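thought: fold this chain, then report.
action: predict
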Amino acid sequence: MSNIRHSPKAPTRVRTLAAGERIDAHHHDEHQIVYAGSGVVTVTTDAGTWFAPGTRALWIPAHTVHAHRARGHLDLHLVGLPAHDNPLGLDAPTALAVSPLLRELILAYTHEPDDHTPERHRLLAVLRDQLRVSPQQPMRLPTPTDPRLTAVCALVHANPADPRTLASLGAATGTGERTLSRLFRTELGMTFPQWRTQSRLYHALRLLADDTPVTTVAHHCGWSSTSAFIDVFRRHLGYTPGTHHHRP
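observation:
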């Protein structure tokens, strides 16, 4: 990433972004919690892209260079925490499940960022407690570095409906299936089917944020049927794609 901006203090605030709008690469000396009150937010680092609808929040550790992008109309809620205050003990970006209570805590805490009353400090204490018990969720699309893996991932990412097997994709890019399978596990920490599912969900969230009908999304992203798409989406995200714009 070039033209990286440094902001020592991670802001606590609400920011509204139009569909497709982005916040360029920057980093803070503090940790940051990133939450989409509406729309979907993607956060990109050199290691990959994390994506989150309203059932997920993203933990961005201090000093992590990252960029934001809005999918759909985005109400971006940002909570900054001092570098010494790491209730999660995490040193890498992570997606966290957001319960209805945690959602309300984030919304309330970012509503008046200049409020320094004792009540607000107690609100932050409860928010931190809820963060500590929030399950981590695999909402990351890791970025490959090996050229052989990059070539295969680029084909899938460019056309999420591509039905080819790993062997067929390997044949198209000049790399054997066993080599690619090993690279997916060692470099990206997941199997090829797992990575492809993450890629398809990423594309699905982008399309849903633009009000694309569920059936069209299922077809465009490579699911065999709308019901199969709904099942995978619900298992990974905790709600159905038809309720994307009406989730709590």
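thought: worth noting. The mean pLDDT is 90.
final: tokens above.
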